[in-house]
């Protein structure tokens, strides 16, 4: 059964893979990290391109099953390990809102913040997959003002994804830290799982920088 198979998370610290690791911590399942040093370009080497031809993390392998893309990984893992209750069941009326927020993240929020980061003109509302940045951010604000979580009282895997995403996008000024976002981020980011992953990431990054510098000096 897939559920009892070993889990490998293809990982690099302080990247989008951190959220997938936080989810595994919250699901309380054993996993191993396959760490890629992006500062040394390991994600573009053939060994990793055989896992994800896009050279992007996260990717997760559970037994024979490989999943890439943050939304896909959250959806898959939270369903595979339902015990902590981070995924409304297929028959739960809240399943629709849950899946919507997971997909809004990848289909709307990521393109919106990347457009802003690249200072790209997004085009008209009907040309843009997220309509407009303001419409998207207002929709998120409305959901979080009602709070405390995206689905109301219930914490789901979608909150881990969004809490972490708001943390890095507000930190670099791509998204304004509206009061509802601030309160939500504090709620999510104070979780022990996130604190643990952030602390271990900081140490890992320092090791990667030193290794990349040694490789450069030796070349
Ligand atoms: N669409 C992917 C994007 C993942 C992504 O952009 N990951 C970055 C790290 S934050 C990456 O792997 N970059 C390595 C590279 O492009 O060389 C997802 O949502 O999982």
UniProtKB/TrEMBL annotation:
InterPro entries: Glutathione-S-Trfase_C-like, Glutathione-S-Trfase_C_sf, Glutathione_S-Trfase, Glutathione_S-Trfase_N, Thioredoxin-like_sf. Residues 91-219 form the GST C-terminal domain. It comes from Pararhizobium antarcticum. The keyword Transferase applies. One of its GO terms (molecular function) is transferase activity. This is Glutathione S-transferase. It comes from the Bacteria. Residues 4-85 form the GST N-terminal domain. The keyword Transferase applies. Pfam families: GST_C_2, GST_N. SUPFAM superfamilies: GST C-terminal domain-like, Thioredoxin-like. Keywords: Transferase.
């Amino acid at each position: 059964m897939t559920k009892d198979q070993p889990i490998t998370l293809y990982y690099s610290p302080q990247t989008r893979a951190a959220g997938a690791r936080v989810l595994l911590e919250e699901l309380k399942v054993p996993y191993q990290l396959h760490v890629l040093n992006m500062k040394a370009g390991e994600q573009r080497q053939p060994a990793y391109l055989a896992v994800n031809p896009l050279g992007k993390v996260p990717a997760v392998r559970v037994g024979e099953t490989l999943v890439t893309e943050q939304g896909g990984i959250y959806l898959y893992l939270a369903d595979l390990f339902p015990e902590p209750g981070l995924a409304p069941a297929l028959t739960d009326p809240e399943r629709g809102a849950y899946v919507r927020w997971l997909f809004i993240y990848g289909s709307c929020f990521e393109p919106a913040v990347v457009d802003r980061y690249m200072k790209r003109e997004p085009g008209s509302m009907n040309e843009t997959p997220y309509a407009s940045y303001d419409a998207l951010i207002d929709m998120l604000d409305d959901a979080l003002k009602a709070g405390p979580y995206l689905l109301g009282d219930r914490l789901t895997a979608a909150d881990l994804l969004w809490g972490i995403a708001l943390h890095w996008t507000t930190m670099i000024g791509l998204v304004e830290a509206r009061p509802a976002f601030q309160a939500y981020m504090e709620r999510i980011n104070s979780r022990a799982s996130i604190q643990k992953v952030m602390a271990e990431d900081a140490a890992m990054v320092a090791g990667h920088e030193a290794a990349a510098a040694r490789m450069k000096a030796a070349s």
